[in-house]
Write a structure and sequence with these properties.
about 325 residues; six-stranded antiparallel β-sheet; 11 helices; globular
C-alpha cells in the first residue's frame, strides 16, 4: 500500500455516487507498502479501503484478485471482501486508473512478533493453500525465478555507490538459483506477500490477511520461504530458530510438507530473499520522487540472502 495517485474530496464524492456505502465522513491515504495507492474511507456506515492499481498490476489479471478474495471470504478465511457498485461491477476507474473498493479488515499488524504469532501465520498459510484447491482461476507469478535476471540487469544500469558492492554477490546467487531451482513441487494459489504489514491481529489472535495483489500460482513451499524470511529475521539479519520452528509446525498441523519440499526449502529461502532484494533495489533506484511512500530497504534482504548462502555452503 502507498499513495501514488492523489485524489481530492470532490473526485472521491463523484466516484462514490456509484456505490451504496453511505455518506463520506473522511478519507486518508495509507503510506505503508510500495505497490498500489490505498485510501481508508470512512462513511456514515462503515470503513472501507479504496485501492487504485499502479505499476506492476496487469489490468487483465484484476478479476483473478477479485474472485480470489471472494472465494476466500466464502471459505471463512478472513480477508478484505470486494464490494460491487450499483451495476454489480467490482472494478471501476478513478483518475483514469483501475480501482476496487473492499471491506475494511479490523485489527493491526504486530510490532513485536512472538512464536505464537508465527504459529498462527503458518496455520493460516496452510489453510489458504488447502481452501483454494478448488479455485478455478489461475495467474502465473510475474515475479518468479525466471524474471529475476531481467530485474537485476535493469538495476545494474544505474550507478549507485551504496548498492554497487551487492552486484557480485547477487550475480553468484542468481547462478545458484538458475542451476538448482526445483521443478515439480506441489503448487497452487499462494498469497506471495505475507509480510507483517499484511497480517492483522486482534488481542494476539490472527484476524486476517490483506493485500492479495501479488497472489499467483506457485510452489506452496516458496510461499513458506517468503513467510520465514519475513517473520524469522530481525532488521540486522539475525535468524530466530524458534520462530522458524513455530511457522513450520503451524503449517504442518494442517498440511504436511513433502520430502521434496523439505529438501529444497534452503534453495527456496535463497530465492525468496533474492526476489525481495531485487524488487526493493529496483524500486529504490527507479522510485517516483513525488509519491507518498516509504520504500523498503533492500539491504535488509541482502543480509537475509547472505545468511542463507552461508547456511548451504
Amino acid at each position: 500500500m502507498a499513495v501514488y495517485t492523489k485524489i481530492t474530496q470532490k473526485i472521491l464524492l463523484s466516484f462514490l455516487k456509484n456505490y451504496e456505502l453511505g455518506m463520506l465522513v473522511n478519507f486518508k491515504g495509507i503510506q505503508e507498502g510500495v505497490e498500489n495507492t490505498n485510501y481508508k474511507i470512512t462513511t456514515s456506515k462503515k470503513n472501507y479501503i479504496l485501492t487504485i492499481f499502479e505499476k506492476r498490476v496487469n489490468e487483465n489479471e484484476l478479476p483473478f484478485f477479485i474472485e480470489l478474495q471472494n472465494h476466500l471470504s466464502n471459505k471463512n478465511i478472513k480477508c478484505p471482501k470486494p464490494i460491487a457498485d450499483q451495476n454489480n461491477n467490482y472494478i471501476n476507474k478513478i483518475e483514469n486508473k483501475s480501482c476496487v473498493v473492499t471491506s475494511f479488515l479490523p485489527g493491526k499488524k504486530i510490532e513485536k512478533v512472538t512464536i505464537h504469532h508465527c504459529h498462527q501465520v503458518g496455520e493460516q498459510l496452510a489453510k489458504m493453500h488447502l481452501q483454494t484447491s478448488d479455485f478455478s482461476l489461475t495467474r502465473e507469478n510475474s515475479l518468479n525465478q525466471k524474471n529475476w535476471r531481467n530485474i537485476f540487469e535493469k538495476c545494474k544500469k544505474i550507478q549507485h555507490d551504496q548498492y554497487d558492492k551487492l552486484f557480485e554477490i547477487i550475480e553468484n546467487n542468481l547462478r545458484i538459483l538458475e542451476n538448482k531451482w526445483p521443478i515439480g513441487l506441489p503448487k497452487g494459489v499462494i498469497h506471495a506477500d505475507v509480510f507483517q504489514d499484511n497480517v492483522f491481529f486482534i488481542d494476539g489472535a490472527l484476524s486476517g490477511l490483506i493485500d492479495f495483489y501479488f497472489a499467483c500460482n506457485d510452489f506452496y513451499a516458496y510461499e513458506l520461504a517468503i513467510c520465514i524470511n519475513a517473520w524469522c529475521f530481525d532488521k540486522e539479519g539475525s535468524f530466530d530458530q524458534a520462530k522458524y520452528n513455530s511457522i513450520i509446525q503451524g503449517y504442518q498441523n494442517l498440511r504436511k510438507l513433502t520430502l521434496n519440499e523439505l529438501k529444497y526449502l534452503d534453495i527456496l529461502l535463497i530465492g525468496a530473499a533474492m526476489r525481495f532484494l531485487l524488487t526493493r533495489l529496483h524500486d529504490k533506484l527507479y522510485h517516483n520522487e513525488e509519491a507518498f511512500v516509504n520504500h523498503k530497504d533492500p539491504l535488509e534482504y541482502f543480509k537475509i540472502l547472505k545468511y542463507h548462502q552461508n547456511s548451504i555452503i
